[in-house]
Design brief:
Bound molecules: 5'-O-(acetylsulfamoyl)adenosine
Number of domains: 2
CATH architecture of the largest domain: 3-Layer(aba) Sandwich
CATH topology of the largest domain: Rossmann fold
Structural class: alpha/beta
Strand content: 15-25%
Number of strands: 29
Number of helices: 21
Strand order of the largest sheet: 5-4-17-16-18-19-20
Length: about 650
């Protein structure tokens, strides 16, 4: 590699040689074995998507054009009409599956609800009528601010049924965040709850909603679901109890066929700076994308599988892989309201055992936390029903992947590492578990129908080594824009590389063409001219038996430009040994990547969806005042780290 290459590309340091081909037992019943989906999509990607759309989705009217592409705007299945709620509910009931369980809901305190497809349909028809009675019409926006209760799915599907776009705001967000999002979307109705359960206590939602709507002139009505039982203030004429409205609502609300490009929802992402972006998703392409990926990536057998995704509906993972994908496929799923450590650290495994979960989808941050809690917790439960494991949200370190496969998956379950974004709508890069030979830590290949390329600074394709991950063709689930801000849409996603969508992530290709996600390119460190990804150094740290979790950042350094500072969380029973870990990194990936300093910490700063916030750690390492901390899940974590940084002996 020339010196010049080192300046412009991301170094490729970590070598991972373990391989896991699909087992004969898994292949026997798998929906996709061999390369036929890949071959078909490679020959004609639009034709491939059209085939998925007609096989997997019920349309009221056929489309005339598969894809209309005027960079950066795509339309899919143009001229087609369909209803998302019909596809998620009515068609399963009409096919005779009304008594099938759609949702096994488990409340944090241990209360449960079992909801069949017929029951869910009745609830959605009623609530659709409630929304209509509150003046909601096609094209309106409705805000949803709820805990993880079935009413969240009911509210979303009811909006879809009548053509109103929902905007779900995560229940852990502040009143200010809610107000900003309501105002940007100009929502007419807000659906919230009195409160929900978290860590054994009721957290109040209605007071935060009240505070928000003091400054949201567009909100005309508020619907309040009773869940927490906490006392709330109801404003006459504006606020209505969900159960009271539902008691008198008619359960007849036929699904109205929607245009394929009808706005289905807005979902706000905070991004790195400035005001949140309202990511727009539409109807036909989105539903096709999430139904297809949920079926093939999770190898879904709806007649026998019990699927569980641990995300919150406030995130895109909850939209695509709790609500729309699984319900469109007629799956039976588990939804859990609370935290993984209430009442004890084995709560999730007790739920797996109780419902016989077969497919489990969670985030690396959770997996690393389970590693920290130790192997005894899963060992308390019979989890032999599990047959497939998924990961999403961050790069999964090879050792965390191995632990997941061995300790949760008995060394038998394939692990599908799925790369995608709020903006992509659905999974983009992932193995197909019956077809792909897995490598721990690699998301492997773009799924059939998706075209991705790694490019260098100049936009030239990289066939081996590190660079920027780009998408070269439109795909059905892609965002259709940023609400009210077309310029920002163009600028954020389509300006860095001509004609390509740039996702903001770095990635490398190994000698066999496997993709390895390297984290956000904004986080890439520059050590004496070597561009080193945070992910590779973190993975080297996590490969040491003492380390459960690690975050590294590049901090300003007078001699090397930047120096690597690592924050490490140890596994239970291990002692901090900085020298040992620094040497371990040098041995694993090279002396250049050896951290200059390692801080040991019981927790790392994370966003509310569990992603490590390296920007804050950089602020801490460089002794700056913290910037925007509103997306931080637990602010005390960084305060503690700042204190320690101030106390640390200064390095030469
Ligand atoms: C689904 C979701 C998107 C960002 C994305 C990446 C990171 C997500 C993976 C991943 C490596 C993965 N949507 N990311 N999945 N990085 N491997 N499998 O998380 O909009 O909230 O975040 O998350 O940086 O750009 S998101």
């Amino acid at each position: 590699m020339s010196a010049d290459d080192q300046q412009t590309n991301i170094d490729d340091l970590l070598l991972e040689n373990r391989k896991f081909p699909p087992s004969a037992a898994f292949k026997k019943n798998s929906l996709a074995v061999g390369t036929h989906l890949y071959d078909q999509a490679a020959a004609d990607d639009e034709g491939f998507w059209a085939q998925q759309a007609s096989e997997l989705i019920d349309w009221d009217q056929d489309w005339h054009t598969i894809c209309e592409w005027n960079v950066p705007y795509a339309k899919w299945f143009v001229g087609g009409k369909l209803n998302v709620s019909y596809n998620c509910l009515d068609r399963h009931v009409l096919a005779g599956n009304g008594d099938k369980v759609a949702i096994h809901w488990e409340g944090e305190p241990g209360d449960t609800r079992t909801i069949t497809y017929s029951e869910l349909l009745v609830e959605v028809e009623k609530f659709s009528n409630v929304l209509k009675s509150l003046g909601v019409v096609k094209g309106d926006r409705v805000n949803i601010y709820l805990p993880m209760i079935p009413e969240a799915a009911v509210a979303m599907l009811s909006c879809a049924r009548i053509g109103a776009a929902h905007s779900v705001v995560f229940g852990g967000f502040s009143s200010q965040a809610l107000a900003d999002r309501i105002n940007d979307a100009e929502a007419k109705v807000l659906i919230t709850a009195d409160g929900g359960y978290r860590r054994g206590e009721v957290f109040e939602l209605k007071p935060a909603a009240d505070e928000a709507i003091a400054s949201t002139p567009t909100i005309e009505h508020v619907v309040v679901v009773k869940r927490g039982g906490n006392k709330v203030n109801m404003v006459a004429g504006r606020d209505h109890w969900y159960h009271e409205l539902m008691a008198t609502a008619s359960d007849n609300c036929p699904a109205e066929p929607m245009d394929s490009e009808q706005l289905l929802f807005l979902l706000y992402t905070s991004g790195t700076t400035g005001k949140p972006k309202g990511i727009m998703h539409t109807t036909g392409g989105y539903l096709t994308h999430v139904t297809y990926t949920h079926k093939y990536v999770f190898d879904l057998h709806p007649e026998s599988d019990v699927y569980w995704c641990t995300a919150d509906v406030g995130w895109i993972t909850g939209h695509s892989y709790i609500v729309y994908g699984p319900l469109s496929n007629g799956a039976t799923q588990v939804i859990y309201e609370g935290v993984p450590n209430y009442p004890a650290n084995d709560r999730l495994w007790s739920i797996v055992e109780k419902y016989g979960v077969t497919i489990f989808y969670t985030a690396p941050t959770a997996i690393r936390t389970f590693m920290k809690w130790g192997d005894d917790e899963p060992a308390k439960h019979d989890m032999s029903t599990l047959r497939l494991l998924g990961s999403v949200g961050e790069p999964i370190n090879p050792e965390a992947w191995m632990w997941y496969r061995d300790t949760i998956g008995r060394g038998e379950c394939p692990v599908v590492d799925t790369w995608w974004q709020t903006e992509t709508g659905g999974i983009m890069i992932s193995p197909l578990p019956g077809a792909t030979t897995l490598k721990p830590g690699s998301a492997t290949f773009p799924i059939p129908g998706i075209s991705a390329e790694v490019v260098d600074d100049a936009g030239h394709r990289v066939d081996h080594g590190g660079g920027y991950l780009t998408l070269t063709r439109p795909w059905p689930g892609m965002l259709r824009g940023i609400w009210n801000d077309p310029e920002r849409y163009q600028e954020t996603y389509w300006s860095r590389f001509e004609g390509r969508y740039f996702a903001g992530d770095g990635a490398k290709l190994d000698s066999e063409g496997y993709l390895w996600l390297l984290g956000r390119v904004d986080d890439v460190m520059n050590i004496s001219g070597h561009r080193i990804s945070t992910t590779e150094v973190e993975s080297a740290l996590v490969s040491h038996p003492a380390v459960a979790e690690a975050a590294v950042v590049g901090a300003n350094d007078p001699t090397t430009g930047q120096a690597i500072i690592a924050y490490v969380t140890l596994r239970g029973g291990y002692e901090a040994d900085e020298t040992e870990l620094r040497n371990h990194v040098a041995k694993e990936i090279g002396a250049i990547a050896k951290p200059k300093m390692i801080y040991f910490t019981p927790e790392l700063p994370k966003t509310r969806s569990g992603k490590i916030m390296r920007r804050l750690l950089r602020d801490v390492a460089e002794g700056r005042n913290l910037g925007d901390t509103t997306t931080l899940a637990d602010a005390s974590v960084v305060n503690e780290l700042q204190k320690r940084a101030a106390e640390a002996p200064s390095e030469d």
